[in-house]
Amino acid sequence: MAKPGQEVLYQSQRAVVQAIYSPLQEQVLKYQEYEEALLLSHLISADIVKNDMAETLRRLREYCSKLSSQAEVAADRCLQLTNGWTFPSLVFALATYIEQFTSRLAQTVRHVEKQKTSIEDDWNVFTTCLNLIQAAGELVMAVDNMEHSLATMFTNAAAKFMWEPATPFTATPDLLLLKQGVDSLKQLVVMLSQAQCQSTVEVALHTIMNPVSSQLASLPDLPAWNSRQGTTSHLSLSFSPQEYVTQIGQYLMTLPQHLEPLLVNHSPALNRALQEANTTCSTGPSGRVVSESEVSAADFLINSVGQNTCKLYTDAILKIPEITTSMITQLTTDIDYICNILEDLGVTSCDPLDKLNLLLKAPVEQYWKIAPGNNPRLIAAVRQMRNIPVQS
């Protein structure tokens, strides 16, 4: 705990630092205005819109390649002038910049729209339309690149931010920014960290699913579906789950064992990451909330893997072009095997796999009575696979 004399000295020194920075705050308030003016001056000097439509489109597409580099130069200015503290204002300035560029694209769109009645007589209009679509695509790609590079630059800068002064002379955002500016900066930091967290969790979950997806990749081409011997006599045969599905089952059954350390050594960070990854939807696909409890993360991960398995399995099955009665029996045996394992693991729903299983098992004469209420895509796909007549 600081002694009274030390605290007074600290506050006095900090007050001197704040007084030095104080005149700059008024200028920093105008940062967005200054940056907009500079960016728009580049756009105006490019003189994009011309009387000749082809030339206008050429200039539009050419300028698209400059958008990202202009944004990076602006971000460098932001870092040099304010340590990156005015990134929120930079974002608004860049939004205005892009808006003004797209207004030039919109002008071209309106011009092309007026020519639609002459497209049959003038194939140049058709070519112009293709170039217009390409220009729009290049704009989207340029903005994507801009967002990626800016996010990287800001994330690197934000890692060095000091929100609370370690010494009276520590540079902190509040020296240049008013409270509203500091709040905006913090919100941007949080938003980007959430986006990075979302991306990280998605990659991790995708990797966890690889043993399942790799087995399912070959499912449509398995020899079992290429046999054309299917007759009703095959229904009396004994069917066992095929190797691909037992491999998936073995992997799924090892999940609790691999997730056991989460119960022994609770990781609040893991729970927090899963919460952040579901900010747009506070519950997972199973409707389960990721809480702070020890079992919550493991429970959520098992449900996530289980339900993704059901979705991937369904998609793989729908790639089988045609199946006979015996093939259906084999396939439903495989599906039942997986669904039973998922049920044992506590997965709350096997949708859409269980719905697909129901349609596969339905007797032909009962198909159109059982089908209503299910996903139309599933109904149509299974009908085609089983060669069931269209409902009259």
Automatic annotation (TrEMBL):
GO BP terms, alphabetized: Golgi organization; intracellular protein transport; retrograde vesicle-mediated transport, Golgi to endoplasmic reticulum
Domain of life (superkingdom): Eukaryota
Cellular component terms (Gene Ontology): Golgi membrane; Golgi transport complex
UniProt KW Protein transport keyword: yes
InterPro entries xrefs: COG7
Record carries keyword Cytoplasm: no
Pfam families: COG7
Localization per Swiss-Prot or TrEMBL: Golgi apparatus membrane
Keywords from the UniProt entry: Golgi apparatus, Membrane, Protein transport, Transport
Bilayer topology: Peripheral membrane protein
Main location: Golgi
Protein family (similarity comment): Belongs to the COG7 family.
UniProt name for this protein: Conserved oligomeric Golgi complex subunit 7
Organism: Penaeus vannamei
Organism ancestry: Eukaryota, Metazoa, Ecdysozoa, Arthropoda, Crustacea
